[in-house]
Design brief:
This protein is mainly beta. It has one helix spanning 2-18; strands at 26-30, 35-40, 44-48, 53-58, 62-66, 71-76, 80-84, 89-94, 98-102, 107-112, 116-120, 125-130, 134-138, 143-147, 155-160, 165-169, 175-184, 192-193, 199-202, 215-224, 229-235, 240-244.
Length: 245
């Protein structure tokens, strides 16, 4: 009995040494103080009302919520989920899935290696070096998207009410385009600028219910290169510029 009883602490110590306990994801919140974290080995949940949030590297799932504080994330290696109201958001590099929601703050994501979803109301969105599926939604903010070459098929889905859109395509890009825009009669030029050889069709001028000005539908369809990627773009009153390197 004594030998058995004495062996239990030794067994527990040996188990703890053989299987170290992993650190839990960090949970931190602030009302007005800034939050600055150099590394989050397990990711975490960070929230702030008016304080800025700065994060160096996060290796796990990361969730950030702010009202008016600005957010800067250098590198996110796990799923990234950010919601902000008025603060600006800057992410240097995200290697997995990204989901961003912003009301009026500008959003800039430099490198994105995973599927990316960005929704904004009034803020501008800039997404550079995207290699996977992308969904961008905006009410009145402008949208700029730059695609890199991708190893597999992807879907690019962009929609806005009145914001202007710019899509930069890499050299040798292959995609099938399905574009729907609308033009007001007072606009002197088409809302589409492209030199990809897409087929452009214009509808008849019509006065819609609740609108004093006539509008018409502009569609652009076609295949570029091997047509692998699927590009869907729609806008109510915004403009679209397609640029290929």
């Amino acid at each position: 009995m004594n030998r058995f009883a004495l062996s239990l602490p030794v067994l527990a110590l040996g188990t703890a040494l053989a299987f170290p306990v992993c650190a839990a994801p960090l949970s931190q919140s602030s009302t007005s103080d800034d939050i600055s974290l150099s590394a989050l080995p397990e990711g975490g949940k960070i929230s702030s009302i008016s304080g800025d949030v700065s994060i160096g590297t996060s290796d796990g799932a990361l969730s950030v919520r702010t009202v008016s504080g600005d957010i800067h994330i250098r590198q996110s290696r796990g799923p990234l989920d950010v919601h902000t109201v008025n603060g600006t958001l800057d992410v240097d590099h995200a290697t997995t899935a990204v989901e961003i929601r912003s009301a009026s703050g500008d959003v800039t994501l430099d490198h994105s290696d995973g599927a990316t979803s960005i929704r904004t109301m009034n803020g501008d969105s800039t997404l550079n070096h995207a290699t996977r599926d992308v969904m961008l939604r905006s009410v009145s903010g402008d949208t700029t998207l730059t695609l890199d070459a991708a190893p597999q098929m992807r879907t690019i889905d962009i929609g806005t009410v009145s914001g202007d859109m710019t899509l930069n395509l890499p050299h040798g890009f292959g995609g099938t385009f399905d574009i729907h825009l609308r033009q007001r009669r007072s606009d002197k030029t088409l809302p589409l600028e492209q030199s990809l050889g897409l087929t452009v069709q214009t509808g008849n001028w019509e006065k819609e219910s609740g609108r004093s000005e006539e509008v018409r539908t502009i569609t652009a369809t076609g295949k570029v290169g091997d047509g692998r990627d699927h590009v869907i773009i729609h806008s109510v009153l915004g403009t679209l510029k397609l640029v290929q390197d």
